[in-house]
Amino acid sequence: MGTETERKFLVVSDGWKAGAVGTRYRQGYLSFQPAVRVRIAGDQGYLTIKGPPQGMSRPEFEYPIPLEDALLLLETLCHKPLIEKTRYRVPYGGHIWEVDVFEGENRGLVVAELELPSEQTPACWPDWVGAEVSDDPRYANASLVQHPYSEWGP
Question: Known catalytic residues?
Answer without folding.
Answer: 29
